From TrEMBL:
Pfam families: EarP (PF10093). It catalyses: dTDP-beta-L-rhamnose + L-arginyl-[protein] = N(omega)-(alpha-L-rhamnosyl)-L-arginyl-[protein] + dTDP + H(+). Coiled coil: none annotated. This is Protein-arginine rhamnosyltransferase. The gene is earP. Protein-arginine rhamnosyltransferase that catalyzes the transfer of a single rhamnose to elongation factor P (EF-P) on 'Lys-32', a modification required for EF-P-dependent rescue of polyproline stalled ribosomes. It comes from the Bacteria. The keyword RNA-binding does not apply.
Length: 366
């Protein structure tokens, strides 16, 4: 299906995942010949995440009024954001006037929990208000064939295959024998434990992403671990090399995950990218006040078929077990984690990607 007009709505709660996922979706729609209006209340992160924009994608401020030409063929509210009643009324008008009714979709957060399969593609008919008579459809990303799948560009494997890992590492000053570890996290309780471990090993290069991860690392190094000598070069026992990276565009962020031997990722989008990268990873899940993220983390680890040491690492990293539960990062352990990631990636590659499924769904419901 090509040439549809899409309105994609994104409210940024905090961090970068809301806009990060919406941008990937918008850019992929644009690449497949669709026209996208990405409406957001905070486009600031796109300045570094997508500085060049993308063909077919227009980024617009959150609308006070619906656009003069009415809604697109497909309207997507990402992550339960609520569009204005006036826009909903314009969907209702278009549904009456047009031969092809707009399809209204609520794109949900990613989870491996069982409710996702049960709720994926369920309708939510509106009985009252400006949208009375309309149906909004729930679309759930997920890890299994009975969900909406994950975002995966058609050329991702080819780009990954053509990636020059050695050149990337040399450009970033990583010694050939070093264990390169990327750090994208919130404030993990076991960060000091990780840094202590890495500082006691030989040839480790830690790459800290900007923002909360870099701040958390700096705090740990200043407060808890002043004894760890940080040197710009590797080679001496007990020395840890640290690079503080600048914010980079999404494709460069992906390359960092491909280049490292172990990735610490967080939230939603970088978790998916870590799976595609095929390297060992540890996920810092977005914490929720009611601890709902505990069940979500366990469901993901079950789906991942995480070996015991990887499960322990996740529990320690997310504060569900004491920091000392973080396993030693021996080569055999990392090898086991890599095998687990690759097996998971193989399972996922058999399934249709999110955009293909979303296009099919929109076609079916229009
Ligand atoms: C550090 C960095 C990140 N990124 C991108 C990668 C991702 O698209 C995005 C980060 O998003 P995530 O990995 O999802 O992590 P996050 O923690 O930033 O986002 C989170 O925000 C919360 C509000 C949501 O509820 C969470 O589910 C989650 O999405 O930033 C870059 O492109 N360049 C960079 O240099």
């Amino acid at each position: 299906m090509s040439g549809l007009r899409w309105d994609l709505f994104c409210q940024v709660i905090d961090n970068f995942g809301d806009i990060g996922v919406c941008w990937r979706l918008a850019a992929q729609l644009g690449a497949r010949g669709h026209a996208v209006r990405l409406w957001t209340d905070d486009a600031s992160a796109l300045a570094w995440m997508a500085p060049g924009g993308a063909p077919g994608v227009q980024v617009l401020p959150w609308p006070a009024q619906p656009p003069g030409d009415g809604p697109g063929d497909v309207v997507v509210e990402a992550f339960g954001c609520e569009i204005a009643p006036a826009f909903i009324a314009s969907i209702a008008d278009a549904a009456r006037a047009r031969a092809r009714k707009p399809v209204w979709i609520n794109l949900e957060y990613l989870s491996a929990e069982g409710y996702v399969e049960r709720c994926h593609q369920l309708p939510s008919p509106l009985g009252t208000g400006p949208g009375a008579g309309l149906t909004r459809w729930f679309f759930y990303p997920g890890f299994t064939p009975r969900t909406g799948g994950l975002l995966r560009e058609p050329d991702l494997a080819a780009r990954h295959g053509a990636f020059d890992r050695g050149a990337w590492r040399a450009r970033h000053g990583i010694a050939p024998q070093a264990l390169a570890v990327s750090l994208f996290c919130y404030e993990p309780p076991a960060l000091a434990e990780l840094v202590r471990q890495l500082g006691a090993a030989q040839h480790v290069h830690l790459l800290a992403t900007p923002g909360r991860a870099a701040a958390a690392l700096r705090a740990v190094l200043d407060r808890d671990l002043p004894e760890i000598g940080l040197k710009p070069s590797l080679g001496k026992r007990g020395q840890l090399s640290v690079s503080y990276l600048p914010a980079c565009p999404q494709p460069a962020f992906d390359e960092m995950l491909w280049a490292c031997d172990l990735n610490f990722v967080r939230g939603e989008d970088s978790l998916v990218r870590a799976l595609w990268a095929g390297q060992p990873f540890v996920w810092h899940i977005y914490p929720q006040h009611d601890d709902a993220h505990h069940a979500k983390l366990h469901a993901f680890l079950d789906w991942l078929q995480a070996p015991a040491s990887l499960r322990r690492a996740h529990l320690a990293w997310n504060g569900l077990a004491p920091p000392a539960a973080l396993p030693a990062l021996q080569p055999a352990t990392l090898q086991e984690w890599r095998a687990c990631t690759l097996a998971a990636r193989n399972r996922l590659i058999q399934q249709a990607d999110l955009l293909t499924q979303l296009l099919g769904f929109a076609q079916q419901k229009s």
